[in-house]
Every structure is written in C-alpha cells, then in structure tokens.
Specification:
This protein is of the alpha+beta class and about 140 residues long. It has helices spanning about 100-105, 120-130, and strands at about 15-25, 40-45, 60, 70, 85, 110-120. The chain binds iron/sulfur cluster (2 copies). One iron/sulfur cluster binds next to loops. One iron/sulfur cluster binds near residues 85 and 93.
C-alpha cells in the first residue's frame, strides 16, 4: 500500500495595488473615451449615471465593498463641466483589457490614476465579475 504525501503549496498571491481612473479638468469633451469603456463607467458632464447602465445589475444590490445601492436609481453627476468616471464602476478595464481603454484613446492624456481610489487587482476583478457575472 502506498501512502501519498500531501505537500501544501503555499501560493504567494501578489496583491498588486492599483487605482481607478479619473478624468481631469484638462478634458476637451471630445467623447472618444465613452464608447470604449466596457463597464459604462464614463458619462458626459452633467449627465446622471446608474449602476445598471451597461452591466447586469438591477434593483437593490450590495456592492462588493458592502455598500447598499439601487442599481436602477439615477445618481448625481460627478462633474457638470467635463466627462467623468463613476469610480464604483471603473475596474481599470481589468477582466476585459490589458490597459485602461479610456487612457489609450484620450487625445490629451487626461485619464489618469485616481490616488484617492486605491484598490487591489483582486478587488477590481471582483468588481468586474460582480457587474458582469456572465463574462
Ligand atoms: Fe472604463 Fe476602463 Fe476607463 Fe475604467 S479604465 S473608466 S473601466 S475605460
Ligand atoms: Fe475627455 Fe479624454 Fe474622454 Fe475626450 S477622451 S472626452 S478628452 S477624457
């Protein structure tokens, strides 16, 4: 009779710290970034936003960070002047693309990391899965 040895392999999971993307006041309102966002996290200045836009979310939900929201409810615009990003919906494009697509197409490089919204890669991927459970 053979006895197997169980080797516990500790996986060192690297917790990469990253940030959501923010649009600065340098935005020229060209609109190029909006259709590129896989999470529909980008809105024109003064437009309302909703969690349900472009996602599978609907009705009362609890976000991965524990916050309770209504996905159907309109939310106040974050900027009245220029395009803006709803930080709760931005995943830095993780789960869809290798790089933030808004930053790729922006002609004036005003889509930059938001130092006030720091999240790990795991958190961003969990957020992406939460919004798009079917892929
Ligand atoms: Fe959307 Fe990606 Fe830009 Fe975030 S980084 S706003 S997910 S296009
Ligand atoms: Fe503003 Fe850049 Fe988006 Fe154009 S691509 S709307 S300049 S953030």
């Amino acid at each position: 009779m053979c006895f197997g040895f169980i080797f516990a392999t500790a996986k060192l999971r690297k917790r990469i710290t990253t940030m959501a993307i923010i649009i600065t006041d340098d935005c020229i309102n060209c609109g190029a970034c909006e259709p590129e966002c896989p999470n529909t996290a980008i809105y024109e200045g003064a437009d309302d936003w909703r969690y349900k836009d472009g996602t599978s979310l609907e009705g009362k939900i609890v976000l991965p960070d524990g916050k309770e929201v209504d996905a159907d409810e309109t939310q106040e615009p974050i900027s009245d002047e220029v395009y803006y990003i709803a930080p709760d919906k931005c995943t830095e494009c993780m789960g869809f693309h290798e790089t933030p697509q808004c930053a790729e197409v922006c002609p004036v490089d005003c889509c930059v990391p938001d130092e006030d919204v720091v999240e790990t890669e795991e958190e961003l991927l969990a957020k992406q899965k939460f919004m798009h459970p079917d892929g």
